[in-house]
Each structure stands twice: as C-alpha cells, then as structure tokens.
C-alpha cells in the first residue's frame, strides 16, 4: 500500500489566534501601565509585579505536576493573572502578601475548579478581595509616588501627607476624598488621567491602561461592549447620585480600579457572558454596583466587588440571553 | 450600495488569487476511468453493464433505483474492465464501473445526431424528466438530485429562483470561472427555469470579491427584466442555501423547513449550466469544472474534466508536490473531505481538490475552552456552539436538543475561529448523526 494522507474532519483551516497569542496580547497591553507604575513608584513596583507573576506561574506548574495534569503554563494565562494581581497591590507591600494572593488566585480560584476556562470568578479579583479582608492595612497603605508624570500635581499632596504624618496617603486617597464630597482633595482631571495620584501600582495611570485597552480592541482580543458600557454606566450613576458635578464625576472614572477593571478585569472571557447582549447587561449591572458601592457603600472603591458579583451572575445571563436562532422566529 | 448579507458569520483567508485569473483548461482523461455508483445523496445506482461490455460516451451505465437517485453515464468510449468495489473520495469502498478508455470518444447515436431542443416547446414535467434522466445533482458539492428540487409540491408557489454564485468557500474559483466563461449558458439556463416557474423572478447572488463576474453577468442580464444580479458581502457561509435566501429575499427559512416552503429554489451556477446543456443539447452530466489549488501545488488551475478521471491525474497536471502537502481535501477547506488516497475518481460533486500545507491549515494543540464567545459570534445559525460541543462530548441529548443542535448546518465557522482549537463542529456533527440514528 502506498502512502496514506492524514484525514481529519472539516474544517481544514483555522484563524491564527490561539489561547497563547491572546494571552500574549493581554501581557503586551498591560506593559504600558507596568512601566508607568515602575516609573512612579520605583523599583518596588517592578519587584512586586515580578514576584506576583513568578509565584502565579509556579503555583500553576506545581499544582498541575502534583495532580498529574499537563502543565499549561506556556499558555501565559498565569502570567496575566500575576500581572493583574500585582496591579491591584500597593507597590510597597510585605513580600508574603503577593505570594498568598497568588496562591488564592491560582489554586483556590482557578485550579480548584478545573484550570483555565473553568473558574467562575476572576482569579486576580478573588485574590484581591481575599487580601483586602486578610491584610487590610497593608492593602491600603498607598504611598506617595516617587516621581510624577510631567510636573508635580498642585493638589494637596503635602497637606495630606502632613496630616497623616507619614509619607503615605492612607488617610485620604482621592476616592475617599471623592466619597466625602471633599473636592479640595480631588486631583485634577489631568493628574488623575496621567497617574499623579496615590493608589495601587498598576491602577493609577489611566492613560497607560487606556492605551492597553485600545490595543486589545484593535487586536480583536476584546470588543468595546464591556468597557464602554461599564465606564458609561459608572459615570451616569456617579453623575446622578454622588452630588458631584460633571468634572469631578468624569475625573472619578480615572480613579481607583475603574480603568483597569473596565478593560482588563470585566473583559476576562471565562467569567463574562459569551454574547454581546449578555456582555452589555453584565457591564451595565456591574457599573451600577460599582457606582452604588463608591457612593453609598462602606468601601471607597467598588470596582472589584462589582465585577466579582456579576461574575456569579454569568451562568444565568448565558442561560437566558441566548441568541435567537436562525429560522426560529422571534422568540 | 449596501451589500446583501446575513448576521454573524466569519471572514476566513480566501486564497482565491491562486486560481481566480486562471482560464478553464481542458484536461483529457488517461487510460482508466472509474464511476462510483453513488455520486449523490440518495439510493445508489445499479450498474447495467458488465465486464467486457463496450460502452460509448453518454451511455447510461448506472440506473436509478429510487426517486432520490440520479443515473450515471460513461464519459469515454471503451471496454468495461470491471464492476467492483473501489475507493471513493469519502474513503469508502463503493461499487463502481471501471472503463478502459479507447481514446476515440465515440458518442452514443442519439447524442451524435441530437438536434437543438427549444425549451419553450416543453412542459415543466418534461423538463423535470429530462433533468432527471440527465443525472443532474447539485454541483455545489451537496449533490442533491436536481429533479427533486425542480418539483416542489404544487401548492408551494415558487416566487424566487436564486442562483448561487456566492462561492464562499476559500480557494474555490470554479463557479467564478464559469460565470466569466459560460455566462450566456447561465442566462439561457435561467430562462429555462423561469419558463418552468412562471410566477418567479430570478436572482444571481455573487459575492463582491468577484467584481468581474458581477459586471459581466450584469451586462448579459440587460434586457432580461426577470433576472437580477445581486451583490453579496464576501462572508462565509454566504453560499449556504438558507443564508443566501435570507440575504436576497430577507426571509428566514423556518427551522426544519425547506426553501420551497417560503417559495424559493436555490441552484448552483454550474447546475444551471448543466440544466441548459441537458435541455437544449441532450447532454447528460459528464463533465465538471474543478479547481486544483493550495500551496502544495506549483501550478494551481481550473480544469474542465470528464467525470471518472482520477484525482491523481488532475494533481499531476497542476504540479503537485507531495512533500509539501500535509492534507488533501476534496471540496473547500471549510466543509470538504480529507482524502487518505488520491487514487479516487472525480465525481459529480467534486468542486475542488486542495493540497494544503501545515501553514494553511493552522493547526495548534487543543486546550480548554476559555469561553471567549468567538464561536457564538461566528455561528450563522445563531446557536451556542460551545454549549452544543460540551453537550455532544457528554452525549447529553437533552441539552443538545434544547440548544437546537439539529439546526447546525455544519459550516465549520465555530471550529475555524476557536482559539483553543476545540473540534466544535466535528463533535456536533457526530452527535447529530448519533441522535438521527436513534
């Protein structure tokens, strides 16, 4: 018998994107914010990020080896989780916090449920929520940036620092000031946009996150639906109920984790609905929850809880927001 | 002008430039021709010749065994070498008639002296009978017998005759070349159809990546009030019967129903030419245009060949490089069949032979579904492919039916876009067959 050719079921063509290339694009999209974070907060930001990435990848590899599964760290999803986790932390954080966070993200939130694609909540956000409950002081110990983008801001940095008598902003982050309705502590729109504010190491620079987000949309890794609906809803809720004006409400979109959440957390494939209709509902609901927590809740920031809560609603959304099938009539 | 289209679907890489401008080239057969007794959907034909018989071009060698069947004709003159099981392109052993070519191409007498037949003198029933006798099947690849399509129940009034020139599968250019080179036959064929269905108008749907064919046919249609050329968006699966009807008429064929239920008939470009040849020139189906393409051939071509020729003859004429080729496909890459051997005969449904390299296939190791929703965005039937895939893997018939898995047209868009390389359509196809067999 002569040579036989390989047979396979059709289709015999595939698009180029694969899981690894998608994750690589997310890593690339996160790099501007990472660079700005390192510039603003110094090498501590770099070490914290590296530690998160390394421990996430290590936990994934160890777990998969230990449970006799195929080691899938080359899909880069653990790298993304590590970077997102680090972006949620203050730059100057005790060394054990990122390691515990990585354990929660990779082992408890992701691998326990079957690994990539099987987790029901966003691993990085689950870890952040856990750390915020476990180490509240360390997690909110926001330091003043070492450097600034452009000229130093004209807000009350020194007043804040003096008031708390340490070189940190733990007393009054911009979001706390926003919540209290104290506009004098609010940074200017430009400072908030560039990242001349205190906060988590990867969250502060809205510009860098926006660049990354636009890159992901350009590369067709994410669609516009979730970020636009999420930020739009958050803006409207803030406008209507916070008592602040247009300017402060708009500025508040660049504070806290809103940008990071909108472009990188709420767009996580696994924990968001599959249809655009479902994604819009998801994003609008999450935007409402985030706004409500920011304005009325016990915490100054509501982005992570809004996304986590809506993660839980995803199976329901997917079940009830199926597309109307072709030839199925208007169901 | 807004292009006609449907919702969702995909934009695969087309590779049509490989053969788009290649004129149809006549390729003559070699020594041996093989005629499988099943080249259509339906019951297989019964061979009516035996070893040692002398056959002529256009002589019936396989006879219908039922209504859903289409007879088979010899395409050369020569001696029947055997009536035995031979491999077909689907990898199955099928009872086949093997004819040794005597290179005289002597035709049966009634073909030699056949006068030109004017369709206007024929009734609808007579035309259907001619089409049936000529062995015509859908030339797009589905190979459904044409005479059945042309005889919808009397109470279903046909309003739209839709000619499928979408050719949405990547690589394929045979219909494109036919539109350019045999345009008048298409128009005359459509006139026959309009004669049969007096209440209908005809539309030729062509994707806008075939601009030359669009302008050529538009020119030919001038002065034909009942024939319209419709420009379609280049999108896969635009040539799917249901999606083509939707793009052109704006009507959805209800789930489980046929196009005739909403007054439409869809025929492939080459089928129309075949109808014209059968009606006016008495020719049964004996030839076809085949695109031979892919990065595994040095000279991609559009060949006009006689049915029964070996795939190997076509591949050799196209400069096939066996070392580069990792997979050989009969048909297009999205819905075609992979071949284990190239020693199989060209049949009525052979629209293309593709020699694909590893780079073109783009395979990658499978991983977990990451729920990215790309398959949901791609599915032209607007189903939820990954849920169906999971249900199929679990043999969970209840979920599969609840998510309307049987509506899947198996176009393969879901598997094409899947970044985790899940075999989505493959498992759905298997599950559909399993449920049908129950």
TrEMBL record, chain A:
Entry annotated with the keyword Iron: no
Transmembrane residue ranges: 21-40, 95-113, 120-138, 193-217, 224-243, 249-267, 279-297
GO cellular component, as recorded: plasma membrane
Pfam families linked: NQR2_RnfD_RnfE
Subcellular location, principal: membrane
GO biological process, one term: electron transport chain
Cofactor annotation: FMN
UniProt enzyme class: translocase
Its EC number(s): 7.-.-.-
InterPro entries to which the protein is assigned, alphabetical: NqrB/RnfD, RnfD_bac
Modified residues annotated as FMN phosphoryl threonine in this record: 173
Membrane topology listed for this record: Multi-pass membrane protein
Keyword annotations from UniProtKB, A to Z: Cell membrane, Electron transport, Flavoprotein, FMN, Membrane, Phosphoprotein, Translocase, Transmembrane, Transmembrane helix, Transport
Localisation per UniProt entry: Cell membrane
Keyword check for Flavoprotein: yes
Family in the record: Belongs to the NqrB/RnfD family.
Summary of the function given for this chain in its UniProt record: Part of a membrane-bound complex that couples electron transfer with translocation of ions across the membrane.
UniProt subunit comment: The complex is composed of six subunits: RnfA, RnfB, RnfC, RnfD, RnfE and RnfG.
Protein name: Ion-translocating oxidoreductase complex subunit D
From TrEMBL, chain B:
InterPro entries (alphabetical): 4Fe4S_Fe-S-bd, 4Fe4S_Fe_S_CS, Ion_transpt_RnfC/RsxC, Nuo51_FMN-bd, Nuo51_FMN-bd_sf, RnfC_N, Soluble_ligand-bd
Cofactor: [4Fe-4S] cluster
Coiled-coil ranges from the UniProt annotation: none
Keyword Aminoacyl-tRNA synthetase: no
The protein's enzyme class: translocase
One Pfam family hit: Complex1_51K
Cofactor note: Binds 2 [4Fe-4S] clusters per subunit.
Any one GO cellular component localisation term in the record: plasma membrane
GO terms for biological process, alphabetical: electron transport chain
Topology term for the membrane: Peripheral membrane protein
Subunit structure: The complex is composed of six subunits: RnfA, RnfB, RnfC, RnfD, RnfE and RnfG.
Family affiliation: Belongs to the 4Fe4S bacterial-type ferredoxin family. RnfC subfamily.
Matching NCBIfam families: PRK05035.1 (NF003454), rnfC (TIGR01945)
Protein name: Ion-translocating oxidoreductase complex subunit C
Species of the source: Zhenhengia yiwuensis
Gene name of this polypeptide: rsxC
